Amino acid sequence: MPAGFPNDAFFKEMFSDRSRAIEFFQSHLPPAIVAKVDWPSLKVLPSSFIKSGLQQVSADLLFNVKIGGVDALLYLLFEHQSTVDPTMPLRMLGYVAEILFKHHKEHGLPLPPVLPFVFHQGPDRWNVSTAFEDLFELPEDLAAVLLPFLPKFHHALLDLSRYDPEQDEDRHDLQTILQLMKFARMKQVLPYFEWQAARKNVKINKVLIGRLLIYALHVDSDLDVEQIYHSLTSNPELRKSTMSVAEKLLAKGRSEGLEKGLEKGLERGLEKGLERGLEKGYWLGRIQSLEEFLKETKSPRETLESMSTAELEARHQQLHGEYQRRFK
Question: DSSP letter string over 242-258?
Fold first, then answer.
């Protein structure tokens, strides 16, 4: 799996949706900024606009928006790493500079203001400063004369380790998505669905259910559809719609192939050698899940079963290449 998968891909798919991005920024930017933004003007810019040589390790998104009649950019960086990065303001300076250099090359002056925002999913609390000037240690007398010559900015931050979507988020779709990302960070994917079942009168459309399921099943390879199904016992409507989606998306691919194979295969360790049929089932499940995640035409099960293990591995590598092209 590429580093960050499936977190990067899930983040990009969820927040590349324009209406969801608007809701996210309305919930998490300072109210004074939210009040001045012309939200209908928000556009998601293509990823090619922020590709650079900076060797970024996390997913990012860039949005164009009008703020008080001025063109501005909202830069959203997703940080899922296991340790907090105290150099984040320096990294952000590099990313923002790349964006502005590219904008200047293509459009000239004036430059648009860029608002950097970090979305942190990692397990540790974000306990370092978000201000660039705090990266310097200057005596008070020197700070007074030098700081006016140094870049001065800070990045906005959503730290899931300190955020409770159930209490702090009143938009149902965002609550649903952020809560799953929080539970995934804590390695508690099954309790997430139990939490979801306890929410009464909350509708989730089947497209979103499908994306939640695929993300959950990739985050926790020991989880299966039946476990999720039984965790939804207290919510018959959600259980029914979830299983309906699962049957279409996963049951024939991941459930029949991966779930049957993992039971014995993981006990020994996949690296110690799965039996030939088990290996094929494993690759079949992974392939169909990735095809669905990438919204590609799903390969018929019969076609995949007729392929050799080497051919299945090659198809899997091809899909990973497509994932890297789209999300990296």
Answer: HHHHHIIIIIIIIIIII
Q: What is the pLDDT of residues 194-235, one digit of tens each?
A: 999 999 888 898 889 988 988 998 888 777 777 888 898 889
89 shares its domain with 195: no
Assess whether 140 and 193 both reside in one domain: no
* E strands present in 13-138: 37-44, 60-67, 70-79, 114-120
Non-local (6+) Cβ contacts of 179 within 8 A are 165, 166, 192, 195, 196
Last residue of a domain, one of 166, 200, 219: 166
State residue 228 phi and psi, 5-degree precision.
-65, -45
Torsional class of 4: left (φ above 0), alpha (ψ -120 to 50), beta (otherwise): left
> How many CA atoms, within 13 angstroms, populate the side-chain half-sphere of residue 12?
22
Same domain, 162 and 193: no
The tokens for 216 are: 């959950």
Residue the block writes with tokens 């998968």: 5
Distance CA 219, CA 56 (A): 22
Could you give the CA distance from residue 120 to residue 99 in angstroms, rounded to a whole number? 21
Q: pTM of the full predicted structure? A: 0.76
- What confidence score (pLDDT) does residue 61 get? 95
Phi-psi region of 151 (alpha: psi -120 to 50; beta: other; left: phi over 0): beta
pLDDT of 260 > 50? The answer is: no
DSSP per-residue string spanning 2-31? -TTTTHHHHHHHHHSSHHHHHHHHHHHS-H
Is the domain of 213 the same as that of 122? no
Domain that holds residue 54: 7-166
d(CA 304, CA 281): 9
Is pLDDT at 58 greater than 80 in this prediction? no
CB 160 within 8 A of CB 182: yes
